[in-house]
Each structure stands twice: as C-alpha cells, then as structure tokens.
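Could you help me review a protein record that somebody else here produced? Here is the record exactly as it was handed to me:
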Amino acid sequence: MRAPITREDLQQYVPRGNVAARLMPLPEYRCIYVKNAKAATSSILLWMHRIHTGDHDFTVRNIHRKHELPRPEDLGWDAVIRMLTGEAFRFTFVRDPIPRVESAYVDKIVRQTNDRWRNKVRRVLRLPQDYDEELTFDQFVAALEAQEPIRMDPHWRPQHLNLMHPLIEYDFVGRLETFGADLARVREATGLPDVPVPMRNRTKREGSLFDGRPELLRKVRDIYATDLELYGY
C-alpha cells in the first residue's frame, strides 16, 4: 500500500516557496489543479476564477494575486490531501520543454522591467551585484546547467518537479499545444461549465533561439530530459 502524502512531502518540491500557492482546489466540482509555470497557468486560473465566482467577464492584470479561488488554508490541509490522493479529479497542463525555456528567458529575463528574475541568474553565475549588461541566452542556459533543478525558479524548473512527480498521480495531464481540446476534456470529466477562456501572456516571435545552434539545444534537452520523456515531447 502506498504511504499517505503529507504537507511536508509536498513542500519538499517547493524548497523556496509556499506549496499552497501551487494548489488550486475547486471543492464544489471535486477537482484540483496543480500550477505549472509557463504552461497556460494564467489562463487556467482566470477560467477557474470565472467559474467559481460566476463572473464570466472578470479580468485582471495579475490573476495570480487577484483571484478568489479557495486556498488550501481555507479548506484545511486534510481535505486538500484527500483531494490529491483520489477524492478529486487531479489535473494540470504541460508544455514542450524547448519552447517553454525560450519563453521563460524572453518573458522573465529580456522583457521584465523587474530585476527579480535576472538577479537569480546573476547569483547562479556569480556575476557582480552591479552587473547591468544584458544577460544572453547562452548565459541563461549556463545558469540552468549550474543549478540544482529543484532549486530553480518555477518558470524554468523542470515541469515534473513543479508537478511533484511521482508524488501526485494525475487523472489528466493536458498540453498547451492542444489547450482548447484538452480543457474540454477536463470539463467533460468534472462537469465544469463552459465559460470563456482567453489565452493570456502569449508571445509570438519568428524563429527560435536555438536556430543554427545544435549544441545549445543538446544542452537544454539534457537539462529537461525527464520532462521530454515523461510527457512525450
């Protein structure tokens, strides 16, 4: 028989954060979503908020900070653990690790006005505090190689760690690449209503940062080898 999950077990997968922030339960529909950064998380949270509140037109700039979804502390950890171990439909979404890491770099390192994420990379690379030059994609990949995966920022941490594999057994793992069809499967399985789901934080660009750089691609594939194998990319 499998040993029961505890809150402490879950927290081990989020050594520098609050594991409660990764878990989004909807007890009225007997389902729970586990967040996986850079895989449509903002869109899914907005969708769940609209379902939970009944306000199908609600929108906000940062849904991660401004939602009314129940939190583990509201339900009690015993109830949340029961949901995670079979009393609820457990679902999440993943993304091809290669474009996901490109998106993390462009979104958090290149475009962000806040230095929070750039400073994380600078510290790993042991760059001086007054270093203000642009961080290249090569430097970003070097920081990924140098860091213990579990201690990475969730936006580029391997997805199987974000999703606490194999601690949590999922009923359904959707893909960003087939988002609409896979979200429909979640609705069918849970009875969640069909409400508008705007795709948020989508970045469009031509080409890839790996174009003509097979050695850099090999390095990234090695870093995310477990994700590539587990999720069939």
Remarks:
- The chain has one domain: 7-230.
- DSSP finds eleven helices and four strands in the chain.
